[in-house]
Amino acid sequence: MKQVVQNYKSGELALLDVPVPGCKPGGVLVRSAYSLISTGTELMKVSEAGLSMVGKARSRPDQVAKVMQSVATNGVPATYRKVMGKLDSYTPLGYSLCGVVEEVGTGIDDVKVGDLVACAGNEHALHAELNWVPKNLYARVPDGLSPRHAAFGTVGSIAMQGVRRGEPQLGDVALVIGLGLIGQLVVQLLTASGVRVVGVDPDPVRCELAERLGAAACGDPSSAAVEAAVVELTDGHGVDQVYLAAGGGTNQPVELAARLSRDRGRVVDIGKCRLDLPWNAYYEKELDVRFSRSYGPGRYDPEYELEGRDYPIGYVRWTERRNLASFLDLLARGRVDVEPLVSHISDFDDAVETYQRLKDGDLKAVAVLFRYPEQKEEAQAPAVTVPAVRRSDKAPTTAGSPKAQVRLAFVGAGNYATSMLLPHLAQRDGVELSTVVTTTALSAANAQRKFGFAEATTDLDAVLGDPSIDAVFVVTRHSSHAELTRRALLAGKAVFVEKPLALTEDELAGVLAAVEESGNDRLQVGFNRRFAPLLQEASNRFGARTGPASLRYLVNAGRLQHGSWYLQQGAEGSRFAGEGGHFIDTASWLLAADPVSVYAVATSGNEDLQVVLRYPDGSTATISYITTGPPGFPKETLDLIADGKVLRLDDFVRASVYGRKRWVSSRLPKARDKGQSAELAAFIKAVRTGGPMPVPLESLVATTAATLAVRASLVGGAPVTLARAR
Length: 726
Hints:
This protein is of the alpha/beta class. The chain is built from 24 helices and 32 strands.
């Protein structure tokens, strides 16, 4: 997406391509329709960036003081590097916009996708195509209100908070000094409140505009007409409130405020002007000087703005969000009119040129809007539906006395079965290896001889029809997994199938149809990594988390040998389809949730993949599946970051957790344990006792659907939503 940024060191303005922000819990992702340029605040920042270093220092003495403190604490070289690094970075512009909700984070129930909202905040309502906005910084736009008018919501809130600080009453007379964007809105809000207004500005065009919008009289600050109007409207007593909405370095506004205020009047500073208060004048009239802090109560409070903690209305009537909603309501009811303030509407692609014209004075404006391109129809990958798991009422009971012996049949006796599964089962107490089934007689005979199967056969139907067999292991090529699993479930067997469970959505649906038809949900997929002792210990030491997490999983898969059946993608699916479920399952187990969307990109030839999973609480997991890496590099490294803690796993050899305390595992003296033994023990226990399977079926289905969504995302070139079937 595109965003307007500025380098404060060089003054460079740019329309930069940046990543799309994630939709975190407690907020919404908003696609901008219109955003408003604050011709006061933003142009001041743009102008400062064009100054020399000395000029910047003179304009921000507060920052100079911080630099000097840093020098005293950290020394000149460190401070110089810190300051230059901060200056020579892009910073955003903008803080008032209107847009359409594109995505809703967890915890949000007051808006939905497609709603029009006005947004506030110099970190959240930026000049950008997409923004993540927390709950207390947006408000729903009333029906019928134009998006370009709703884009004034934030500056309207600033003006409204200033008016509230003045506490105007019906019949009061107010003086508004500075008739820029904020001043024009203050004039209208005061007029709507039953207050008569006198405006002051050196620009006669702005004075005329304010009078059209309700001011009783306006004029130049040195004009006798202004003072005459105040005398006439107040019977010579002076105005009840003065609203300073001016900028610049002159002290004239505060001096004029003292001269035209009544005794014990109120002076409210809304803008950023010089405030060398003439002591005698303010003392003699005992003037009440007040400051208006931006949009209202809640501003600069991270618990309010970022965490969504509202202030009780009985204690704080008007917060910044309530001000925003109130201003939108006034716009919708026609009590405030912002259309006359719109001097120029610029296409967002012309943002840099527009700022330059404003800075150079070629474009004279009260308010300028950026108009964003209408949301184009993007190439959408087909949505992948996560099928619902339905169980028949005629489900066979599995409860009862535990079995003394669990009789197993293996369908397939290839390399993985004979090296990673059968060695853990052959000598296990309470397990009887009953039958091995293969398509070739010799492989069955070899497995029988090596692991002690009672029988070896090529007849699958005989095995499935044998009532003495409790569980069937499906360890064949990928293309046969779903069909063999379906048949074994219909035969009433508990099933352990190696990943993947299915290669297509239709295959997955077929497995679940067998569950529904038979009521037999005794299924486990060989996602063994969640059972790895080292990873389990690291997860326990990491502990529970409260906030969203970022997970990074690098898989150095390596190249396949020529002739490997894994390369038969037409029949056996892609490498990631066959193996990727391992890593998705591990991420989902660590994050304790199932993914809600999948986005995948690949290098040429789909050899190296980047897969981004998003979870309901805003957590993300990025799986880098690399086939072109060096063979000497570890295969799997994982980092989980959340709540100020980091869990790191180094290829199931070493693990560490960094937090308030640091924990590092000892290096394992034996080969890597990726959890196969513990997984098999959990499966055998579930079969023997009739207890729940090690992993809920719903989780197995969600992981399989997410794995299938990777291909759909690659084909469509867009994120794929994982829609849960009802």
